[in-house]
Amino acid sequence: MASNDFEYRHLETLDRDLGRYSSLERATAYVARPLIGPGISLIFIVLASLMALVFFGQSTNVFIVVIAAGFGAYMALNIGANDVANNMGPAVGANALTMGGAIAIAAIFETAGALLAGGDVVSTIAKGIIAPESMVSANVFIWAMLAALLAAALWVNLATWVGAPVSTTHSVVGGVMGAGIAAAGFAAVNWPTMSAIAASWVISPVLGGVIAAAFLWFIKAQIIYQTDKIAAARKWVPVLVGIMAGAFAAYLALKGLKKIIKIDMQTALLIGAVAGGLIWLTMIPVIKRQSEGLENRNKSLKVLFGIPLVVSAALLSFAHGANDVANAVGPLAAIVQASQSGNFTDAVSIPLWVMVIGALGISFGLFLFGPKLIRMVGSQITKLNPMRAYCVALSAAITVIVASWLGLPVSSTHIAVGGVFGVGFFREWDTSRRMRRASLNIPDLPNQPSEERRRRKLVRRSHFLTIIAAWVITVPAAAILSAVLFFIIRTVAG
């Protein structure tokens, strides 16, 4: 009997000990979870540096290139964490894609865009921001590019942490400008180019917002507010999908395929018109079949916009990978060329191994850190459904085409987020207009108090102000940080 009591107490003690270990394991896993992303990121940065060592091991400047490869990998991770959310956020917010599906599609198409259509010849100093001849030596140029790359990456990292989608292009531009001023003075900066970039702060989001709002107004007027919504959808949804197909065909021809073939604006618009017409004709029987048996209400309409929205997100990711990978690896490629040959005034082609670092870094950054900004863009600024998200995606493609035609530098981040703002503010205006009309038709309808009207705002003002503030200070903040880093690097290297 005593033996049984002893065994029972022994087992009870063992159970308690095992329970403690189990609790400890759960606690350790909970504490370690936030460290998984940074840990994998650090491993990727180290592997990128080792890749540079393998491909550049025989050079006298191998140490500089290894460090630059690490900085380039860090920048690519941050582009994936911040920039890619603009393409996927609307589709996820509209429930057309799950978070996992969005990340998978974005990773595949971003990588494909970067490797297949990216890597076009880039200017040695970020699109002519500063004059190459102002640099007194190749070493000064390399220090400036290192400072610019690290400053841009740190700024985008900070913006992602606070939940603000910012332009990685503007971050790089600010970094290059700040390092250029620190290295060669204010006269080194191409101020007309900087003025055009500053103008794009306003042009990009306003143009994207206006176009997105215009399409949402059209959808509401021609489909949603019609008595027979399904009949109206059969008529207009194929047209809208055709417009989207034409816009994306022109967009990809103009911006996403520069490495494969050079296409001018007129040819791109012609390609877009042909593609749009073909898709319009194709979608007529498809939409007719999809709409059979649907109830005559708004919820039924969401089904018809789901697939076009997923396709648009994939195409935006492809074009983004083709264009914006240079933000991560352009300065790195310039450092590689300057370290290899001492030449830093000519245009530079991006080597394949450098492109691989950029493409994989964007995908890893999206997978590890992207969900935060995807949720911000997709659901926390304003509520999106497939129709509204469609308007945002379409405005992104059209705005880039219009801006290219006008010769204006624009930011894909500002366009996409501006489209979300445009949709939200249009909904506020439309809701207010309809309530005023209802109060005129029903004189006894009570007016809402001002506090209730504020509560019913459809765009979150706190997010709006945070994002606008981040946009305005991106270039100067990256510039100041880059200048400080340049002086530190020059002091350490000198």
Report on this model:
It is found in: Membrane. It is a multi-pass membrane protein. This is Phosphate transporter. The chain is mainly α and 494 residues long. The protein has one domain (36-493). The protein is 80% helix and 0% strand. It is built from 15 helices and no strands. It has helices at residues 2-56, 62-82, 85-93, 99-117, 138-162, 168-184, 191-224, 229-256, 265-290, 298-341, 352-380, 386-406, 412-441, 450-455, 461-493. Helix 7 (191-224) packs antiparallel against helix 12 (386-406) and helix 10 (298-341) packs across helix 12. It is elongated. The chain starts with a helix and ends with a helix.
Give the arrangement of secondary structure elements.
Blueprint: H1 2-56, H2 62-82, H3 85-93, H4 99-117, H5 138-162, H6 168-184, H7 191-224, H8 229-256, H9 265-290, H10 298-341, H11 352-380, H12 386-406, H13 412-441, H14 450-455, H15 461-493
Helix pairs in contact: 1-2, 1-11, 2-5, 2-10, 2-11, 3-4, 3-10, 3-11, 3-12, 4-10, 4-11, 5-6, 5-10, 5-15, 6-15, 7-8, 7-12, 7-13, 8-9, 8-10, 8-12, 10-11, 10-12, 12-13
